[in-house]
Design brief:
The protein is α+β, with helices and mostly antiparallel strands. The protein folds into 3 domains: 39 residues, no CATH class; 204 residues, D-Maltodextrin-Binding Protein, domain 2 (3-Layer(aba) Sandwich); 200 residues, Periplasmic binding protein-like II (D-Maltodextrin-Binding Protein, domain 2). It has 23 helices and 16 strands. Strands 4-2-5-16-8 form a 5-stranded mixed beta sheet. The protein has a 3-stranded antiparallel beta sheet with strand order 14-9-15, with helices on both faces. A hairpin with a 4-residue loop joins strand 12 and strand 13. The longest helix is centred in the C-terminal third of the chain and has 19 residues. The two termini are 18 Å apart.
């Protein structure tokens, strides 16, 4: 497996998809020694700027598909809300008509899956996440993008692929190997919105109580206990809040940040068995049960929305979830704690600092009727200007380095404490795909979440619950194991 992945990595270096530093870092992660990696580095001819770039940006013809109509399908999301006002600019630039649908997430997924699976070509472009891509790639429903990106006749030289955060591009690469292979192989989508998982806390309460931001999980538990039940400015505060319902997003956000930082792993990809009940997984789940004792009443019914609302209405002192909730937390029209929140990297556990990641991206349908016109739309929608302009309309976090550091974007986040620094550090250092590459991960995650909730409710101890979770997850894994 390492031999194949090293070859893929060498190809990525050759085509400019990773730089020399990225090559050495990823080679080390594959177990390649430094001397061998340096030797491989010297053996790979890297495509230069003259080989991969059109003559001049002024030569790029945005009108080449004028008169065509494309049909994107999008999720109701801050990204979409931020982008909609700019669609007329694209139509004027290209002469392409955009007829799009925008749907709530559940309805969106159902309608898109049906359309893709029939091969009818109903939609040209669609929003997607990497867990969805595992299914779409397997079905042959999503187009690999490398040839489009590397074709100077199709891609505007000013688009600048290298400006995307490399870690976010890696999220959308997959070589098709079940359970593994993320970050390798073809690129399936372009990132437009990112969330990592940060520790959000009440800066005003911490300062008033003389409390330091916890940097390890023992300290975090102690702080949660200390602040739980505190009366602050006439309001009773819980020590901590997070998602707690019986669905897989609970697993991949707050709980998962603890689980992976404790050194937990979801499964053994070779044995095709769950490992959530190993020593690290049990310890993390036991800790989570203790921490959630200091959460608001009813937390086991909280999705992202209820957890965020609890923090925004001043009911909780700490919160681990999607960092880009800051856009709502810092909005005085929505939040009682605007200007009172702090943002930090999550604590370090026995396994280090690890958080999962979620990215909304744009994919190109394999059955699209207007692929070249759709590719123009994808370039435009992920351009430096559009991602910077949409960021100040709450499409955070930006997926390009230039947009993240655009003066207007930084000004938009002014007053948010360390937020801009924290989310970029999460992107660059800590937030990665930590779930296995399974189209059916939702089934696996739901089973797991049910057992975690039993621990939070005090119905079972962590060891019993994780043993039962592993057994139930193994049944799901056995039903989907490749022949």
């Amino acid at each position: 497996m390492h031999d194949r992945r090293v070859l893929n990595l060498m190809q990525a270096l050759h085509t400019g998809r990773v730089d020399r530093r990225g090559f050495l870092r990823r080679a080390a992660a594959l177990g390649v020694s430094a001397p061998v990696a340096m030797g491989l580095l010297g053996s790979v001819p890297v495509v230069g700027a003259q080989d991969s770039t059109p003559a001049a940006s002024g030569d790029f013809d945005w009108k080449r598909e004028s008169g065509k109509t494309i049909y994107p399908i999008l999720v109701e999301h801050p990204y979409t809300d931020a982008m909609e006002p700019f669609f007329p600019e694209f139509e004027e630039l290209t002469g392409i008509t955009v007829k799009y649908e925008k749907l709530p997430e559940t309805q969106f997924r159902e309608k898109l899956l049906l359309a893709l699976s029939t091969g009818a070509g109903t939609y040209d472009v669609f929003m997607t996440g990497y867990i969805d891509d595992f299914r779409y790639v397997g079905g042959g429903w999503i187009e690999p993008l490398d040839e489009y990106i590397n074709d100077p006749t199709l891609t505007n030289p000013d688009w600048d692929f290298s400006d995307f955060y490399e870690s976010l591009i890696e999220v959308n690469r997959w070589d098709g190997t079940p359970a593994t292979g993320v970050g390798e192989g073809s690129l399936w989508a372009l990132p437009v919105n990112e969330e990592g998982y940060a520790l959000m806390y009440r800066k005003d309460i911490f300062e008033a109580q003389g409390i330091e931001v916890p940097t390890n999980y023992d300290d975090m538990l102690a702080v949660a206990e200390q602040l739980n039940g505190l009366e602050f400015e006439g309001q009773k505060v819980a020590g901590f809040v997070a998602r707690g319902d019986r669905t897989w997003p609970t697993i991949t956000t707050g709980y998962g940040t603890v689980f992976w930082s404790y050194g937990g792993q979801v499964m053994d990809a070779d044995a095709w068995k769950s490992t959530v009940n190993n020593e690290a997984g049990v310890a993390a789940t036991d800790y989570w049960g203790k921490l959630m004792k200091f959460a608001p009443e009813g937390v086991t019914g909280f999705t992202w929305y209820e957890a965020m609302q609890s923090f925004m209405n001043g009911s909780a002192a700490m919160f681990i979830d999607a960092d880009h909730m800051a856009g709502s937390i810092e909005d005085p029209a929505q939040s009682k704690v605007a200007g009172k929140a702090g943002y930090a990297i999550p604590p370090e556990g026995p396994g280090g600092i690890k958080t999962n990641i979620w990215i909304w991206s744009l994919g190109l349908a394999s059955a699209a009727k207007e692929k070249n016109a759709a590719w123009l739309f994808m370039q435009w929608a992920t351009s430096k200007k559009i991602l910077a302009d949409s960021a100040v309309k709450n499409n955070i976090n930006p997926t390009r380095k230039s947009a993240a550091n655009d003066p207007a974007v930084l000004a938009y986040m002014e007053g948010w404490g360390d937020y801009a620094k924290v989310y970029q550090e999460l992107i660059e250092e800590y937030s990665r795909v930590l779930v296995p590459a399974l189209p059916e991960f939702a089934q696996v995650g739901d089973v797991w979440a049910q057992s975690v909730q039993e621990v939070v409710l005090g119905q079972k101890d962590a060891k019993t619950a994780m043993d039962e979770a592993a057994a139930a997850m193994d049944q799901v894994l056995a039903s989907i194991k490749p022949a």
